[in-house]
Amino acid sequence: MHSNHNRTLVNRLGFALLPFALALSTNTMAADTSTDNQVEVLNWWTSGGEAKALGALKDSLADQDIGWKNMPVAGGAGTNAMAVLRSRITSGNPPTAAQVLGYDAQDWAERDALSSLDDVAKAGKWDEVFPQPLQEFAKYEGHWIGAPFEIHSTNWVWANKSLMDELGIEQPKTWDDFIASLKKAKDAGYTGLAYGGQPWQDTTVFENVVLATGGADFYRQALINLDPKALDSDTMTQSFDHLRELLKYKDDNSPGRDWNLATAMVINGKALYQIMGDWAKGEFLNANLEPGKDFMCFRTPGTQDAVTFNSDLMIMFDTDDSEQQKMQQTMAKIIGSPEFQITFSQFKGSVPARMDLSADKLDVCAQRGYEQVKSAAKNHTLMGSLAHGYAAPASVKNAVFDIISSFVNSDMPSDVAAEQLAMAVKSATS
């Protein structure tokens, strides 16, 4: 958080990654972050709704005469982007800023690689307007190191309204009702659950099932506190049973499918539901569909009293270039402003990270979601998403990814999966 040179960052990270770094960054080494009046921003917002949301930031910067050099790295949950970011910093060529998730922001702050956003935060009263569970990641040792774009929540179901009507399906309130509606869709020749078979998507669905099966206290105990007894418990075994039941209703072509292609299955009437974070809503809106009329949004049955969240943070990399510093501060100020928070969420499908705004300009799904986030924050049931970097560090997250994907892609028994999950977490934390 103090001024230091790129060379120091390389030393801190070590040279082990350097060959990998140089290979990955061949196409980006030409980028010079000291370019006058231009910021280079690493991100993974490449789908339609995401790109529109990012355009709102680009336009706001243009209004301040700040140019934009986009550095997109495709891949959900930012796994690919973080590999590229490490390579850029290892090779002494950090971007101006990067979109990251919670524990990744903490990791870079711990390496003393980031610029402080305290001045912007103080002027914008960030301590008062951003919820505490989010501040735990956007601050490091009491200092603001990330500007929160939004709050996404991951315990959403997205449904094709016309299919629900055709099949006579009411919005399911319980897990059993949810499964019954999936069976009805399958029996009628439709795919029940639009599913993307990638580790982060497998785990997004899994964390929904854990929350629906065990409730908020169990979710916190198992996936945030990483309690070995909770991880290898009857409740966790039952969670795997429920996940196995759910997987009966996905299609055979799901392995490797990107999340937005699964969303398109619901949009196009080929599938009834998708369990996904509310960035999926950006795809429905981008297809000119209207919430409540063309598609439905509701909390995964059994999770209605809690919200599992992630938030995209913009971190700024330390630089001695005074012009870059000014542009970083300007970008942080824009991201935290009330106007931008609303505009960004309108495109992205999210809700504002600030808790002090009127929801009048948001669609009906976001209005409901915003109130649910506020309520969860007050009731201590606003909890970090494991799949999206807000429940546990990357080492644990990746270990869980391996177990969940192994379970999804095999006939592994549920009790074995629970045992292996506990062992994997123990290994990742020891």
Layout: helices, strands, pairs:
Blueprint: H1 6-13, H2 18-24, E1 38-43, H3 48-63, E2 67-72, H4 79-90, E3 97-100, H5 102-110, H6 118-124, H7 126-129, H8 132-138, E4 139-140, E5 143-144, E6 147-148, E7 152-153, E8 156-160, H9 161-167, H10 175-187, E9 191-193, H11 199-224, H12 228-231, H13 234-247, H14 259-267, E10 271-275, H15 280-286, E11 295-299, E12 307-310, E13 313-316, H16 322-336, H17 338-348, H18 364-379, E14 382-384, H19 394-408, H20 414-429
Parallel strand pairs: 1-2, 1-3, 9-10, 12-14
Antiparallel strand pairs: 3-13, 4-5, 6-13, 7-12, 8-10, 8-11
Helix pairs in contact: 2-4, 3-17, 6-16, 11-13, 11-19, 13-20, 19-20
Radius of gyration, whole Å: 21 Å
The number of helical segments is 20
CA(first)-CA(last) distance: 28 Å
How many strands, which pairing sense, and closed or not: the largest β-sheet? 5 strands, mixed
Question: Roughly what percent helix?
Answer: 40-55%
The spatial strand order of the largest sheet comes to 2-1-3-13-6
What proportion strand? 5-15%
Count of individual beta strands? 14
pLDDT average, as an integer?
92
Helix-strand category: alpha/beta
**Given the C-alpha coordinates, what overall shape results?**
globular
Q: Uncertain regions: pLDDT < 50 for 5+ in a row?
A: 2-34
